[in-house]
Amino acid sequence: MPSASFSSTRSYTRRTRRKGSNRLPIPSRTSNSGGVVEAGVTCEPLVAASGNYATPGGASTSTSFQHVPPYDLRGRKSPLHLHDASTAGFNATAPVHPTATRPTSPTASATASVLQSAATPPLSQPARKRLRRNTSCTITSSDNSNSAAHYLQCELPDEVMLTIFSYLYEQDLCRIAQVCKRFQAIANDNNLWKRLYQSVFEYDTPLFHTENSRFDFIPFEESEHHNPWKESFRQLKKRCLHVRPHYNGTAKDPVRRMPHFETIQAGLDHADEHLNGGAKIFLHPGTYRGEFLVIDSDITLIGAAPGVVADAVILERETESTVMFVEGAKSAYLGHVTLKFTPNVTSTVPHHKHFCLEVGENCSPTIDHCIIRSSSVVGAAVCVSGAGANPRIHHCDVSDCENVGIYVTDHAQGTFEDNEICRNALAGVWVKNHANPVMRRNHIHHGRDVGIFTFDNGLGFFEANDIHNNRIAGFEVKAGANPSVVQCEIHHGQTGGIYVHENGLGQFIDNRIHSNNFAGVWITSNSNPTIRRNDIYNGHQGGVYIFGEGRGLIEHNNIYGNALAGIQIRTNSDPIVRHNKIHHGQHGGIYVHEKGAGLVEENEVYANTLAGVWITTGSTPVLRRNRIHSGKQVGVYFYDNGHGKLEDNDIFNHLYSGVQIRTGSNPIIKGNKIWGGQNGGVLVYNGGLGVLEQNEIFDNAMAGVWIKTDSNPTLKRNKIYDGRDGGICIFNGGKGNLEENEIFRNAQAGVLISTQSHPTLRRNRIFDGLAAGVEITNNATATLDSNQIFNNRFGGLCLASGVQPIVRCNKIFSNQDAVEKAVANGQCLYKISSYTSFPMHDFYRCQTCNTTDRNAICVNCIKTCHAGHDVEFIRHDRFFCDCGAGTLNNQCQLQGEPTQDTDTLYDSAAPIESHTLMVN
Q: How far apart are CA 287 and CA 338, in angstroms?
């Protein structure tokens, strides 16, 4: 019988060579059965897969993976004859049915036993009963040839047919499937084709050649094909040859005519000579040592073995590269093998330019599902170099190498996807010298150096890689390199996450950078990367650390939960920090020190344990339009000569002050809203300076602005209002130049000046206060020039005994003078002040009641409650009446029931100094 070709179309009819012949039907080219045959395997339109046999009407009966015949052999009748029960197939007692229908199939176990019997010659079958003479049939009983054909096609049990077919090769099955629908169904049994397939290709799962340079294992139950084994056979058989180590057979399979070779090079030579490229070479299990493989054509090399294929097929060399692709290998394929480069460490042959896998200029092979190992202490396991080098390397394992894992250089490109790159002695990936690979979904971890290293103008697009637990940074950029890194997860680095230095660039976008031992991102030495839309969190130190004249755009990131500052800027660094959320840090939000600079704008900085922003040691950043709030200490903290500009920010709801300025710091604070501070709005102390201009400072629990301890800020055109304490409080030697401010509706004095302080107030408006407008006490003085002080409850300008300020051109009018009215009405002053205000008036002490200077008694209580006692005038000053407060032994006769003891300090409560430095 001539062999079938997959590219030809054959039709079959039933015909006999001569009358009385018992031979099988032979092929004819005039039938319309419609089968298509290609490379020895036929794709028939009537085939039903996975054990689904086509019924005469075109329907199929679904079965399991095991073959289930379409006929019930124990109850089946011939569609053309009626038989006696004693000879009806395997079951002598089977009932006789008058119609040619197909009852339900027998069990799979019965079929399995028949398939097992196919390994040995079939046993003799039970005799069938002869045809009845009176049965009508299209084939007459006198035509022996037709009777034999009819018996074979219609009468022989399916189990017997399966046993017979199990001895056939794929070409024969394809031919015999053209005989009739019954043969077609049985010849397409999945188990038959699985045994044939595995005898040739050895795979446990069907392998599909879905497109050029692509092979996919698709499990039987997931395949869309009716017979996956047959379809895979059809796809793989064309232009294939086989390499088997120690092959002792002939050069070709005598039946299939598949070439077999003992060495890979012999297979390559045969493909080049006879197949003109495009051949598939299947490498069967074994270790192929010492072959110098240089691929310069579109050949396919693929491992063929059961189980994990790459574990069973090993290509190994000790000198030169194990496999090298060079120009001409445009669509070459290497898959499912292990590549090893194991140079002899004692050898004098240099191997620093030899690699396990090498891809050179102007070639673009596909490397798929390979295991790649190199014990060389120089070079790399995989090297892709040169213009036009553009491989696709995916699903490979490049691990446990004694140097670099993958090295891409010299303008090379390539696509690297879904690879496992781990435990290499140096970088998992090197990219340099204008190389520009695409790397997606790789798992790069536990390297003994950096995860990915781009340097010397290297480029690259890195997407969705998982990079973690590397000894140095997860990703390092150096010396003009400019990679794009998007949607990667970079975490648990033993040093840091991303390290950009020595003029490095790069775009880091939409990554998750977390749980690194040091900073999530380091930028230094004139580097200027873009860090956008990343989550940078849970670092064991800081989030983003910019130092050594680093720059960079830090934008739209979510930075939180880091042990140190969310962003740290130092040593002349000058980044742009915009639109970030910096929050819930265990330390501070943004820390600028050691002459750091930068533009910090439109960020939200909140809920940090220490200061929201620190600026210190000669630093000069510009902070614009940020929301800095809800911190557990200070909002913005300038200290130790911290400078810069704080402009148009919202600073609110801090446990300490909104802004603190100390120790020589001299910032410009302009156009901000500073409110909700639990310890005041702005605190300037310990020699602090600064210009506060056009700010709104309101709703703070203590003074809107504190100035103390030799500090000398300038306040211009600010609005300081609705404070729950005073407006501006200046004490302990504080100075300051207050010009054109509006100070109104504060619970205590609009301006309180105390304890050797000497500020200058010019052209301010101080009004609608719930206490006095301006109070000067305790040996303080001031220069008051051209101020307007009006409509304050306790009075306009209140001066304690001995105070002699410089007062000129002020307008003091329409104040309510509630203190004077209370005194005139004989009321205790505590009635109008309680213990929250300190009206300024004469106060006394009672020697009879043994009170002290700390226990002030108003003039009306002296006259009424202490009448006839030995009393003494102390001074005119700020106080509340202790008699009315009920803190003395005798009950106040003017106030009523005594209140709880409120032994407060004479002055307003001192602000709490930030502990930021104590924990820094």
A: 9
pTM check: above 0.85: no
- Within 8 A by CB and 6+ apart from 915, the residues are 633
Residue bearing tokens 């005598």: 254
For residue 879, give the nearest of 857, 898, 863 by alpha carbon.
857
Handedness of CA 241, 242, 246, 252 (dihedral sign): negative
1/650: higher pLDDT = 650
At 810, list the tokens: 């002020």
Indicate the pLDDT class of residue 74, thresholds 50, 70 and 90.
very low
Q: What is the DSSP letter of 53?
A: E
Distance CA 882, CA 528 (A): 65
Biggest alpha carbon distance in the chain?
A: 158
Closest CA to 562 of 535, 523, 580, 533: 535
- Is residue 23 within 8 A of residue 35, CB to CB? The reply is no
The pLDDT value given to residue 180: 86
Quote the CA–CA distance of 637 and 657 in Å, as a whole number.
9
Tens digit of each residue's pLDDT (9 = 90 or more) over 281-340: 999 999 999 898 999 999 999 999 999 999 999 999 998 899 999 999 999 999 999 999
AA identity, residue 613: V
| Residues written for the chain | 920
The answer to whether the beta carbons of residues 50 and 189 sit under 8 Å apart is no
Those residues whose C-beta lies under 8 Å from the C-beta of residue 716, and which sit 6 or more positions away, are 691, 692, 693, 694, 739, 740, 741
pLDDT at 31: 34
Query: Could you tell me which residues come within 8 angstroms of residue 134 by beta carbon, excluding any fewer than 6 positions away?
Result: none
pLDDT at 379: 87
Asked if the model's pLDDT at residue 553 lies above 70, the reply is yes
The single-letter DSSP state of residue 396 is -
**Candidate from 85-89, 205-209, 447-451, 614-618 with smallest mean pLDDT:** 85-89
**pLDDT confidence tier of residue 145, bands split at 50, 70 and 90:** low
Q: Give me the residue label for tokens 């002290």.
A: 852
Q: What is the mean pLDDT of residues 151-170?
A: 85
Q: Residue 192 in 3-state DSSP?
A: helix
Residue from 681, 672, 688 nearest 706 by CA: 681
Cα angle 526-623-507, degrees, rounded to a multiple of 5? 40
Collapsing DSSP to helix, strand or coil, 874 comes out as strand
Strand-pairing partners, residue 783, are 760, 806
Cα gap 744→746, rounded to integer Å: 6
Give the tokens for residue 543: 């989030």
8 A C-beta contact, residue 770 and residue 748: yes
Q: Nearest CA to 765 among 743, 747, 746, 748?
A: 743
Q: What 3-state class would DSSP assign to 407?
A: strand
The mean pLDDT value for 400-425 works out to: 97
Residue 916 contacts residue 614 (beta carbons within 8 Å): yes
Exposure string (b/e) for 492-528, b if CB count within 10 Å is 16 or more? bbbbbbbbbbeebbbebbebbbbbbebbbbbbbeebb
**Positive or negative CA dihedral for 208, 211, 214, 216?**
negative
For residue 757, what are the contacts with CB-CB under 8 A and spacing of at least 6? Answer: 707, 708, 730, 731, 732, 733, 734, 735, 780, 781, 782
How are beta strands 613-616 and 567-570 bridged, if at all? unpaired
**pLDDT value at residue 254:** 65
Rounded to 5 degrees, φ, ψ at 373 are -135, 135
Which residues have a Cβ under 8 Å from the Cβ of 669 and sit 6 or more positions away? 645, 646, 647, 659, 682, 690, 691, 692, 693, 695
Q: What is the mean pLDDT of residues 89-99?
A: 31
Helix (H) or strand (E) holding 115: helix 108-117
CA distance linking residue 749 with residue 729, whole number of Å: 8
Residue 198 C-alpha from the chain's centroid: 42
Average pLDDT over residues 426-452: 97
For residue 103, what pLDDT is reported?
33
